[in-house]
Amino acid sequence: MSINSWPALDGMAYGGDYNPEQWSREVWDEDVALMREAGVNLVSVGIFSWAMLEPKEGLYDFSWMDELLDLLHANGIAVDLGTPSVSPPAWFFHAYPESRVITKDGTVMGFGSRGMASHASTEYREAIARMATELARHYADHPAVVMWHVHNEYGVPVGEDFGPRSVANWRLWLQGRYSTLEALNEAWGTAFWGQRYGDWEHVVAPAATPTIANPAMKLDWARFTDDQLRECFRIERDAIRQHSDKPVTTNFMAHQSWNTDLWKWAQEVDVVSDDHYLWAPDPDGHVGLALSADLTRSVGGNDPWILMEHSSSAVNWQGRNVAKRPGEERRNALTHVGRGADGILFFQWRASRSGAEKFHSAMLPHAGKDSRVFREVVQLGQHLKDIAEVRGSRVVADVAVLYDWESLWAHDLEWRPSDDMQFRERMRAYYERLWRDDVTVDFAHPEADLSGYRLVVAPSSYLLTAAAGENLCAYVAGGGTLLVGAFSGIVDEHDAVHAGGFGAPLKDALGLTVEEFLPLREGETCDVVFDGAAMTADAWAEDIALAGAEVRGTFAGGPGDALPAITRHQHGQGAGWYVGARLTHETLAPVFAQVYADAGIVPAGGPEGLETITRHGADHDFVIAVNHREDAVSLSITGTELLSGAQIDGTLDLKGGDAAVVRIARAQQGGGA
After folding, report:
1. Superfamily of structural domain 13-162+205-392
2. pTM of structure
3. How sure is the predictor about 666, in pLDDT bands with cuts at 50, 70 and 90?
4. Is residue 526 within a helix (H) or strand (E), and if so which, with residue range?
């Protein structure tokens, strides 16, 4: 069967989750009329509808879905049809109580939420296969259906399951990975604390223990959990493909999920899609948004992708659910478009009156159509029509940031030298420096081909395989510039310290190893003197053992006083930089300036808070400019501004909080003022 790789839609995809089962039939007619007013052309339906689609085991009722899809199609609205496997009905858990999730402390999760089923359950797997098969058989040729949406946010809220079936699967998974107990004992270092296994039946899962469980075991458990989730996805996807050639997706949560290795997941879907929600405590949440968008595009091999969910205003699940200000929804959406999204969808279309998410914003809020949020939704729908020609264009980057979920899993285990050194925090600090310099980046796996990039940045590569180390050293020797953050190259794929010590896999590229970590106490700081200027560092210092590297920055004060803090090493045709301190995105600025010079990269140099991204099309390029400042800025550019139709002859004036999409001649560069 030839699989289509993109939903059959004209222009950009626009819409959101639609849950009509929460509403009476007359509301459906109002919904589709307002969808047409808003420019909606795609809705996701059925994601939480298992109890209505199969009210009793083996008894399927598609009559209401038939009526809904016919109504949507008659109104020109396409459907991303969901499989409801994220929320099995009450009858399922009554019939198969052993399919409930068991937590690491032995608690059995009850019914009444979502994501409640054990992915190891045979009955669950059989039930989702039957449902996916019935849906695909029934709707394979329905003209409304342009894409399939399997499950919802795998690993959220539950990925791990410590029940007996999961543990049995775990043992089989380990036997497939290691073949022999001797190999497993070696990989896990079970000689420590007398943990050696002599029988496969004695191998346990890393459930609650008196103190921390074996870290190598916990790292493999994370891999196993990810593989088990992906097995369930494949069960549904393959059932659908027996009957339908429409593309299949599932919604990722890039940089916001823990259980899923998206480099692997992206190989399983036809279209990459992502959910992104701003973190309200972060006043610069738009930076994290850009990070997630770039990461989503990158795991999908730079193909166009879909923002499957985001919020029109506030969410409901944070401690303080901050509402988006006027224009913020538009800026968020266009940032995603700039970073490769060809579809912008929300959760959800109509705000729920009942249930856990009744305070979550929606395209059609409780205030109704005569509201600021809905007016902005309508405006955004028109904007996406105005920029339809952007669809299919690509983002090209000269800089790669290394991102590895296995390193995240290992890094964030217990008993590390300092709780202050966290994977996501370090990733954000280095990414934010690049973002504020208006440098567009891809993300890449440490073992990927990096030869096309002028600069590779490794903010947090605690786990680095020998193959990845060789890859990075070869990259530098071939003429690349590499910037590595502290606490990198420490352990191998089994969370064992590399032979040769801390940083050994990068010794050739960086000209150093690390003799000892020198964490600071909570609240303590020290200085790093770089190019004659002092800047404040906190939380972390290192005792660096030089092996050819040139010292460019030195600790002043603290446990690393007078020791090297920042180094540069010429290796072959390229250079390897190392930062052995915890610096913020502000204090990283002078370091990056030198690194950019090495790499031959010239940042755009626009005003702080002006975000510009270029998408490259077949005939034209498109510059998406988003002004996150309160005051106006000017952008040096010539072309057609697609949202207004205005011709720009040299200067675009962008008001505070405004955004623009400019079609330009090939290879024109814009600059802010």
Report:
1. Glycosidases (3.20.20.80)
2. 0.97
3. confident
4. strand 525-530
